[in-house]
Amino acid sequence: MLKSRMEPQNDDILLVLQEVVAPLVEADGGEIYLVSSDSTQVSVHLAGHHAGAPGNGLFYRRILDPAIHAVAPGAEILLTAGWIIPAGAVRLMSKGRVCDRRGQ
After folding, report:
1. How do the residues of the chain divide into helix, strand and coil, expressed in percent and rounded to 5?
2. How would DSSP label each residue in 10-25?
3. pLDDT for 78-104, tens place per residue?
4. What's 2-99's CATH class?
5. How far, in Å, CA of 3 to CA of 73, rounded?
6. What sign for the dihedral angle of Cα 6, 7, 8, 9?
7. How high does pLDDT run on average in the chain?
8. I need a surface site. Which of 38, 60, 86, 95 has the fewest CB within 10 A?
9. For the whole model, what pTM was predicted?
């Protein structure tokens, strides 16, 4: 399901989200979802303990933005957070695992 929505050149974006960002979010009790991704825009959603957390701005500036721009310098990053997960979003988990929106 995820591969059909992503272009092959976005494998690096998925890799950095799964191997760098997701473990950090999970360690803090949060969940990260990939809403959409292409060569110009990456949209992610935070849930769990990150839903509405005051530290999300710091997370964006210090972790998400540098990680994505290391592999896709020109990409625009859209970050949303909350308990309601956007339709079609796919949960990203550490160690390269991808699951459906229920986390299974």
Report:
1. 40, 25, 35
2. GHHHHHHIIIIIHHHH
3. 999 999 999 999 999 987 455 554 454
4. alpha beta
5. 21
6. negative
7. 85
8. 95
9. 0.82
